[in-house]
Amino acid sequence: MALDAKGTAQEVADLIAPVLEDMGFELVDVEYVSKHGRWVLRLFIDREGGITVDDCAGVSGEIGDVLDVRDIIDHEYVLEVSSPGINRPLKKKKDFQGAAGRKVKLRTIHPREGRRNYEGVLERVEGDMITLLVDGAEVSFSIEEVEKANLVYDF
User: Max CA-CA distance within the chain?
Assistant: First the structure.
């Protein structure tokens, strides 16, 4: 059964997250995209104290071997491993909890009253619900409703 890009990214994430955890890393995100006719699998990893170039190289070698053995992707692709950087995505409940009190930008999967994009201060996380203060009003979302979310830095 052929998977779409999103399904492939999820299958890769499910396979490698425990391996990365055993290596002392957290899997922050996986992207599987086609750019200029070639497929790119991007892994964003983190750990306490940050990520070095050597960490990325070590993870690339280890995870590349795991992916080759499991043969999830049956064509050529480029494996990229990096830190999530300053625009770290917020995906899991603990990511949102860590961003409480900070400015975030998010996009919902489905429009709410014709709107999908929101920017405001993340007020709180209760259960699977997050609440933003947007233009002076509180707006709540379930984490499952969020397609993409990132911290916003004002320089």
Answer: 52
| 69 vs 28: CA distance, rounded Å | 23
Give the residues across from 35 on adjacent strands. Answer: 38
At 133, list the tokens. 């203060």
How far CA 34 is from CA of 6, 31, 37, 85, in Å, comes to 12, 10, 6, 22
Instruction: For 50-95, give the DSSP string.
Output: ---HHHHHHHHHHHHHHHHHHT-S-S--EEEEE---TT-B--SHHH
Q: pLDDT tens digit string along 19-76?
A: 999 999 999 999 999 988 899 999 999 998 889 999 999 999 999 999 988 888 888 9
Amino acid in position 40: V
Helices 5-22 and 53-70 cross at an angle (nearest 10°) of 120
Q: Considering the entire predicted model, what is its pTM?
A: 0.76
110-145 residues labelled b (16+ CB within 10 A) or e (exposed): eeeeeeeebebebbebeeeebbbeeeeeebebebeb
Which residues are 38's β-sheet partners?
35
Task: Output the DSSP codes for 5-32.
Answer: HHHHHHHHHHHHHHHHHHTT-EEEEEEE
